[in-house]
Amino acid sequence: MKRHLLVVLSLLLLGFQEFSSAAILVEEKGRQVQSYKALSSGEAFRQKRKVGVGMGLAGLHGLLGVQMELDFVPDVGVLLGYGVSEGFQTASVRLKKAFPGSGSALPYFATGLASWFRKEKKPLVEGRPHFFMEKFLSESQRLKGNFQETLLFGSAGLQYLQLRGPWVGTSFYAELQFLVDLGDFVAAPTGEIGFFYYF
C-alpha cells in the first residue's frame, strides 16, 4: 500500500505545478505587484477552467485517491479516479452534472462505475473500509485473496469554488454516495471529502 500511496501523492504534486505560477506579476509605480485572475461566478469558473486534478478521502476511493476531471461543457464533466485502500485498490469513471450559479457553491450529481480489486493470492484478513469487507466480499473471496468487484454508484455533492485571490482555481467538496455491487446487488451508502485544483 505504501508504494501505491507514493504514486498517488506524486501524481497529485505533478498536477499542482501550475498552481505555483498562478500569480501574475504586474508592474505598478515602478515595483512589481502580484495580481490574481478573479472569476465572477461558478459558471465563469466552469467555463474558463476545464481540467481539474485532486484528491479524495474515503468513499469511492476506499481510503485515498487521486482524480482528474475533464469538463467538456460548463455543466457536465467526466472524472477518472484511482485509489488505494487497506488491502485493495480502486479505479473509477463517473459522469458529473453540475449546477453552476452566481456564487461559489456548486451543487452536483454524479453517476458511474468503480472497480475495487486485489491481485494478491493470499487471504485478506482485514481491510478498510469495513463495509466493503462485510457487505461486498464473500467468505470465499476473503480466503482466496484476489477479487474484482464492479460497483455502480450514484452521488450528490456540494463543491466550494475559490473564485478570487491567490487560491483561485482551488475547490473543496463533500459528497454522499450510494454503491451497488453489480454481482449480487448488495448496496451500501458512504461519503467522501476532497479537493481539486482546476487549470
Short précis:
The chain has 199 residues and is of the alpha+beta class.
What this model shows, in words?
The chain is an alpha+beta fold and 199 residues long. It has a single domain, classed as Porin (Beta Barrel), CATH 2.40.160.20. It is 17% helix and 50% strand. The protein is built from four helices and ten strands, in the order αββαβββββααβββ. The strands form two sheets. It has an eight-stranded antiparallel beta barrel. β8 and β9 form a beta hairpin. The chain is elongated, with a radius of gyration of 19 Å.
The CATH architecture name reads: Beta Barrel
CATH topology call: Porin
Order of strands, widest sheet: 3-4-5-6-7-8-9-10
Count every helix, treating DSSP H or I runs of 4 or more residues as helices.
4
